[in-house]
Amino acid sequence: MRRPRHRHADVHPEVEVEQHLFEIFFSLVDHPAVGERINSMIWRIYTFPPHFYPLLTSDRPVIRTNGLAQKGGHLALPIGPRRLFVASHDPDVINGLWASAPRVLAAEVNKNTVESAVK
């Protein structure tokens, strides 16, 4: 199911980017095969402190590792300059990300985002 996209002249660019990233995420969840797998995962939102460099985004913002069905597999998606959505079937992955140093995690997310960008 497509969600409507609303544009308002007074919308802050940061909010518009966040809305676009959620649209990408919802398009994945809406896909029958992918959506079922994502819906059954453990979901977390990681919020970075305001003094960190912002998370980057690109035309290919979804970070995937090890395949979604494999041990250690997860996906991550920056959903704002300070928020990272993470999903995995493996609780050890979720707990490991939460135990990692925030600066290291943010740097790794930004590195992956830049490396995955096409445009």
Could you please describe the fold and organization of this structure?
The chain is α+β, with helices and mostly antiparallel strands and 119 residues long. The chain has one domain (13-116). Helix content is 42%, strand content 17%. It has helices spanning 13-30, 32-39, 91-99, 102-116; strands at 42-47, 63-65, 74-78, 83-88. It has a 4-stranded antiparallel beta sheet. A hairpin with a 4-residue loop joins strand 3 (74-78) and strand 4. The protein is globular, with a radius of gyration of 14 Å.
Indicate the low-confidence ranges by residue numbers: 1-8
- Overall strand count: 4
What about the largest sheet? Answer: 4 strands, antiparallel
Measure the end-to-end span. Answer: 27 Å
Number of helices: 4
Overall pLDDT confidence:
80
Number of domains: 1
Strand content: 15-25%
Taking strands numbered 1, 2, ... along the chain, how are they ordered across the largest sheet?
A: 1-4-3-2
What does the radius of gyration come to? 14 Å
SSE topology string: HHEEEEHH
Instruction: Tell me the structural class.
Output: alpha+beta
**What is the overall silhouette?**
globular
Residue share in helices? 40-55%
